[in-house]
Amino acid sequence: MPSAGERKIPGMTRRWWPLLAGYLVAAVVLAGYGAVSGARRFAQARVTDPGPLTEIAGPVGYFTATLAGAVTLGALLYVVITARPDDAHVIDPPSFRAHRLAEVTAAVWLVAALLMIPVQAGMTTGASGFALLAQGRLPDALAVSEMARAWIVVAVCAAAIAATLRLTVRWVPHAVLLIPASIAVVAPPVTGNAGQGPDHDYAGSAAIVFATMLAITAGLRVTAAICRPGPELSRRISVVLTCGGAIALAYGAMLALLLLDGPADLLRTDYGRWLALAAVLLTAVTAADALAWRRGALTGGYLTGTSWAITAAVAAVSAMAIQAAPRLLNHDYTIWDVFLGYELPDPPNLWRLVTDWRFDSFFGAVALVAAALYIAGYLRLRRRGDDWSTGRLLSWLIGCLALLIGTSSGMRTYGSAMFSVHMAEHMLINMFVPILLVLGGPVTLALRALRPADHDATPGPREWVLALVHSKFTGFFAHPATAFLMFVSTLYIVYFTPLFDTLVRYHWGHELMTTHFLMSGYLFFWVIIGIDPGPRRLPFLGRLAVLFAVMPFHAFFGIALMTMTSIIGGDFYRMLDLPWMHSLIDDQHLGGSITWGSSELPILIVVIALVVQWARSDRRAARRADRHADAGYSGDDDLDAYNAMLAELAKHRN
């Protein structure tokens, strides 16, 4: 671990000043905009003006927290992709600079998020945020401000990151911390404009990708400007910056189409003008990154200049985030706009479930990209002359197709409004999709398809995969007991507590449930039938026992749904008031029947896969024994060695 003296990195201070100056200029501009436009912004949103202090604190605080979060995420990513850990997995001194930067910006992120909680509550309720604190009315304001509650999530994640970075300088924790950093980066955007009004399902999913990619291209750039990577790492960073910027532009354009009320809004509204500025800056920076990628070097002047430009783009996005989007201002809202983002005038049938698609720009894109990457790895092996099972290929592709259907077809469209269809979606995402993906063996394919880094080179993707697969973090979650408890207990925690009532109301809640149930299902079935390398493997009888141990819990869950008299998520479903929904309790009982009846098929698939793997393992063991016998070895090498050791000890005693 670096000593206390190593925490003072020579040369870093003078690299901070130009970037800090860029932040201060942007913050002053936003403060002036907040003061000049405050009364107009709140009048347009039909909210009481909370006063000049909150008018100014809103845009400046949002910008400060967003930029600090982006740099924290970017610094963590910099460590992950550039570090050369030693045998104890401790990062090297050059990447420690990024670690130190992440320590500082995570602390700034935490403070800014804490300040934004009352400020955001004040902007939502039309009261001074500081008055809410002084008068003890903040809890009431938080109850009506979804975005203020999002800042609580940001503060918790930033605190966890800051504390962890003070305790470790190993590579794996930096990779793991990318998860809470990404959650905190997307929490405010998905609860802001993107999470409101018509088509907010499209906008919410797009905001997840846009916010993450913008944070990466901003934070990684600022980190590189401070750490100054060499030529070898410059090309790697240029790839990430270019791809991240291009994706951010694509999803930003999608958000613009959804949140503007027409092209004229680009010039006649403040929101549109800030959007145009952000688009121009991000386009220019991404184009410059593409050229830098070809040159293969990132100079200090280039990094500093583009950091100023991307800081200005983040400031423009922050100015947009603290005011209502044009499409939301004069819209005549229905209850379906508020809770779904689309209309459902007709009841579901097979045709509508198949054809009523609303493409999920997050999970739908994940499914398509995962399929494309797997095919690329498969083709690389085939071109190299290596074999790869066609069954594994088909299993992975069918799993990706099932994920796409479960998150983008009529199953998701009606599943967001009906408990019965939601449970069908749940069973698909939690059981069928993970089984198919696990049988695809993606980690094994990646390890075979990716080229290993040269002996003296910086570790690459193959080494990252190996480090994560064999890490204590993965070992904990892939432990049979942990995977079993997650797979079983969270089913009851989500649906038999008020948690479901909260998650079902929001599109981000549906995305969060999908993420959790997909990952918990994947970990559980990896323990049972995984063909990828892992830190722990039960014997086949043990795996079969764990599988059968799950069955009563799923059966009881389905039966409980079929017999309950209280309605899960009842407040939400009653507010939705679908005209063709005659009985919520009957729909819930139908959901229980779907859960109970559909749990047998995936279990049967797993049992068949497990028996096949068991038989193949026995055949391999028999072939090894035959080879040993042919080579003149006895079949009991361990026993013979043990007996020889005992004989030798007896000889010495005599």
Can you give a write-up of this model?
This protein is mainly alpha-helical and 654 residues long. The chain folds into two domains: 5-333, Formate dehydrogenase/DMSO reductase domain (Formate dehydrogenase/DMSO reductase fold, Up-down Bundle); 337-623, no CATH class. The protein contains 31 helices and no strands. The protein has helices at 12-44, 52-82, 93-125, 129-134, 138-144, 146-167, 171-176, 178-191, 200-227, 231-259, 265-268, 270-295, 300-321, 326-329, 335-339, 350-355, 363-383, 390-408, 410-415, 419-440, 442-449, 461-469, 472-477, 480-495, 499-503, 507-529, 540-563, 570-576, 584-598, 600-630, 637-653. Residues 1-11 have low confidence and may be disordered.
Quick overview of this protein structure:
With 654 residues, this protein is mainly α. Helices cover 77% and strands 0% of the residues.
Top keywords for this entry?
654 residues; mainly alpha; Formate dehydrogenase/DMSO reductase fold; 2 domains; disordered N terminus; cell membrane; Caa3_assmbl_CtaG-rel
The name of the CATH architecture of the largest domain is: Up-down Bundle
Distance between the termini: 52 Å
CATH topology of the largest domain, which one? Formate dehydrogenase/DMSO reductase fold
Total individual domains: 2
What would the principal axes of the Cα set say about the shape? globular
Query: What is the SS-derived class?
Result: mainly alpha
Beta fraction: under 5%
> CATH homologous superfamily of the largest domain - what is it?
Formate dehydrogenase/DMSO reductase domain
* Beta strands, count: 0
Uncertain runs are: 1-11
Radius of gyration: 27 Å
Largest pleated sheet: none
Taking all residues together, what is the mean pLDDT? 89
Helix content: over 70%
CATH class of the largest domain: Mainly Alpha
Tell me the quaternary state: single chain
Number of helices: 31
Protein name: Cytochrome c oxidase assembly protein
Transmembrane segments: 16-36, 56-81, 101-121, 141-164, 171-190, 202-227, 239-259, 271-293, 305-325, 362-381, 393-415, 427-447, 476-495, 515-532, 544-573, 593-615
Pfam family, one: Caa3_CtaG
Subcellular location: Cell membrane
